[in-house]
Specification:
ABC transporter involved in vitamin B12 uptake, BtuC, 399 residues
């Protein structure tokens, strides 16, 4: 039987095609991946492996969180992988070869990432060059600069007990730290959800009942406290995970609770409409690339922290692919206007869980890349269908 519009679609299919599922697909994929790998290797969900997983997601996750700002405009930043490697190398050179204190060298590396992002933004916003072309050229440039910076050494080893190394090696061993974070996250979620519901109710918009909010809070609390219990069975709360959650929460607040964030979402919907509304289009377009560059540099420091080394052979292309995949798999649209920084957390959990499971099974990295590519393809197709539901439906109807 031929149907003539979206009104006649099955409700569940309609929700899929309009992007109403939000993070649900990523959560389902994560649960499925965890179940499969736990069956194949019972040590997958062990406290030690999950604790290591919570640290492994941080570097790429931070880069993906910054990239989301660019994706919200419907643009792309292809320079983040190379920029991440260059800024990490800059830190190592300043610290090891020139004796600069680690904290100062790290700050200069992050500032360099911000400046590089600003340069990309200016060329894109003021000169009208496509973001794809600008950032592709920048990626090639930073890759070359990385080789020049490291010179003949190829690899630089920095202090494995210093400030940067501590970022991924320090743990809060007291159980109260992990449980306190779980309680804080749960409480903040309930308060913000309740406040948002009251605001929507007062403005006459659709709102969630207190029962729904309480139910969602209970589910979140269950997972949060279960995670805290698992972490406490190994070494406690990792400092890297704490920093990651705080940064993602801060970026999310900036996007959803400030006029700047509303301007970003507005431009993702329509640049011309945002301009007519009096928004600072140029400044916003430059700023998102600054955020992306800053987070790329910060993520690069966390990635280097895991091994206390920086090398010319860093897999910057894989890093770029994983960052983009994390954002899209987590629910950020490639077409702009839809996404949250929490998408980076969900997406990188999916990707890194596959990597962790493959490592435990002793399988080659090529298989991991293939699986990640498949998950990314599904996410991209879903994103495309949600962007053009009517067009997709008409193809189905003709068939």
């Amino acid at each position: 039987m031929r149907e003539q519009g979206m009104r006649n679609l099955d409700p569940r299919r309609s929700r899929l095609l309009t992007g109403g599922l939000g993070p649900v697909p990523a959560i389902v994929a994560l649960m499925l991946i965890w179940t499969i790998f736990q069956i194949l290797d019972p040590s997958f969900l062990s406290p030690r492996n999950l604790s290591n997983l919570s640290v492994d997601i941080v570097g790429t996750g931070l880069i993906a969180a910054g990239l989301i700002f660019v994706l919200l405009l419907g643009e792309i930043d292809l320079s983040i992988g190379a920029l991440s490697g260059f800024t990490a190398a800059l830190f190592a050179v300043l610290n090891v070869h020139h004796g600069m204190p680690e904290v100062l060298a790290a700050l200069l590396a992050v500032a360099t990432g911000c400046a590089a992002g600003a340069l990309n933004g200016v060329i894109f916003a003021r000169l009208g060059v496509a973001s794809f072309a600008v950032t592709l050229a920048a990626a090639l440039g930073w890759s070359g600069m990385l080789s020049i910076l490291l010179g003949g050494s190829g690899t630089i080893i920095f202090d494995d007990e210093g400030f940067v190394a501590t970022l991924t090696r320090h743990y809060f061993g007291r159980p109260a730290a992990a449980y306190g974070l779980a309680a804080l996250v749960t409480g903040i979620y309930f308060l913000t959800a309740h406040q948002r519901s009251r605001y929507h109710r007062a403005s006459g918009a659709a709102f969630s009942s207190i029962r729904k909010i309480a139910a969602r809070t209970a589910v979140l609390g269950l997972f949060a406290f279960a995670g805290a219990a698992v972490l406490n069975q190994y070494r406690g709360l990792p400092l890297a995970l704490l920093i990651f959650l705080l940064v993602v929460a801060g970026l999310d607040y900036g996007l959803r609770r400030t006029s700047y964030g509303r301007a970003v979402y507005a431009q993702g919907g329509s640049v011309e409409a945002a301009r007519r509304a009096g928004l600072h289009v140029m400044a916003v377009r430059i700023s998102v690339f600054m955020v992306s560059g800053t987070m790329a540099a910060l993520g690069g420091l966390f990635l280097a922290s895991r091994t206390s080394t920086v090398g010319a052979g860093s897999p910057t292309l894989n890093l770029l692919v994983n960052a983009v995949a994390a954002a899209v798999i987590g629910g950020t649209s490639l077409f702009g206007g839809r996404g949250r920084t929490w998408s980076a957390l969900l997406g990188i959990l999916v990707i890194q869980s596959v990597a962790s499971g493959m490592a435990l099974l002793g399988l080659r990295g090529a298989i991991q890349i293939t699986i990640t590519a498949g998950i990314l393809m599904i996410a991209v197709i879903t994103d495309s269908l949600s962007r053009h539901p009517r067009h997709a439906f008409r193809r189905d109807a003709r068939a």
